[in-house]
Amino acid sequence: MKRTVVPMGPQHPVLPEPIVLDLVLEDEKVVDAIPTIGYIHRGLEMMVERVEFTEFGYVVERICGICSFMHGMGYAVAMEKIMAVEVPERASWLRLIWAEMSRIHSHLLWLGLGADAFGFENLFMHCWRTREEVLDIFEKTTGGRIIFSVNRIGGVRRDISDSELVAIVEKLQQLGAGFAETARIFETDPSIRHRLGGVGILTREDAHAVDAVGPMARASGIPLDTRLTGTYLYDHLDFEPVLETAGDCLARVVVRVREISQSIDLIRQAVQRMPKGEGAPIETKVRGLPTGETFERLEQPRGEVIYYIKANGTKYLERFRARTPTFANIPAMIKLVKGCDLADVPNIIMTIDPCISCTER
Amino acid sequence: MDRKAFLGRVGEYQKDGWRLAIINATSILPTEAMEHGAFDVSWSFAKDGAFEHLREQILPGEEVPSISGLFGAAFLYENEMRELFGVNVTGIALDLKGQLYKTATIVPFAPSAIRARLEAMGKKA
């Protein structure tokens, strides 16, 4: 059969950021897909040559406007490991709370974009309206809505009062109750089920074979979640990853919908279990220059992120590397696109929750 | 590097159910002992909570076998490593032939390129 190559991207109505897939078609079936990225490659990793390690956290946060808090946190945690800095417990709890809030707003952002991609604009508006409320909390507690600059090596810059933490939990629980109807629509609406159910199936075996991470893996029944490794105080909380087994586009939506409720509950648990006491230290003074190397893993909203840092005893790091979850999920996306109908490609791409800014750094 | 031994060790990780977590390269700047510098390359594998690495020091031009036949996702890391560092990875299952990134500097993390930038900034290379 004659083959046709249809370039999808870098500009496309469902793509929030530029990526190209050269789709090789036989009639309406995709038989191959070749990715090209690099349209927003900024070479941030190269900036370690010019930016001192104390300032580089600000650069790392700017890898992406959605994952900014967790990038800043990952950098700080990795540097603390290299420099053997003990972080005050309250600072670690505050990081966990902001990290889970990041997951909530990231998933809401994506659910809105996903709804827009499959033609449910009303749902898009509800998701983004809800997300604004999370950003309001970020603004109140960090001073920023996108870039927070609240992490620093040794702890965090700002505390949240105990009364404010209780108010945040109440606010998030109200938000969760309000979101329940939107969640119900995502999970049960016939038109969504028809559009996404059975489309872009990544089996458990395939998910393992292509090393999928995050909600991509969990929607295929793999309990892969860095929070399970017991780091960052998650071992103090009741936590089980949200799993689905269908592995289709709908399962990836459902995992993210349920993770919103789960993150609200994790924040509730964190506020209950963290030691009370405003005025407790939130930062350890860091002295000296870093020497050594480390790999650090975090569970970002899109899945596992890995930072590699190598320091040589000077003000400038020798190497900074971020392997982001979207980078890890591109092979899964290519696997899914092969064999699908052309009309399903946009939804399949959307359900990996691609963050190209993170991927290209 | 001992190609056969390396692929054998990667194959063991694959058989034992590990997943490829990251392939990472770091440039080692030229010294008197290593005129053209080198690359410190690590292949990291994860399984449950465990995280292990294979590491090799690679000289510029030295052939590094692709592991994309064992771990399908490796092709992306390997294309990146070749484009950004100039590591000579061969046999990549999906060879993007230098089209993955669009960088203004050709092979920006090659040891010689880093040294040239540092010297231009007046830093000790």
Please tell me about this protein's structure.
The complex is a heterodimer of chains A (about 350) and B (about 120). Chain A is of the alpha+beta class and about 350 residues long. Chain A has one domain: Orthogonal Bundle (Cytochrome-c3 Hydrogenase, chain B), CATH 1.10.645.10. Chain A contains twelve helices and eight strands. In chain A, the strands form three sheets. Chain A has a three-stranded antiparallel beta sheet with strand order 1-2-3, with helices on one face. Chain B has about 120 residues and is of the alpha+beta class. Chain B contains three helices and five strands; from the N terminus they run αββββαβα. In chain B, the strands form two sheets. Chain B has a three-stranded antiparallel beta sheet. In chain B, β4, α2 and β5 form a beta-alpha-beta unit. Chain B is globular, with a radius of gyration of 15 Å. The model of chain B has no long low-confidence stretch (mean pLDDT about 90). At the A-B interface, β3, β7, β8 and α10 of A face β1, β2 and α3 of B.
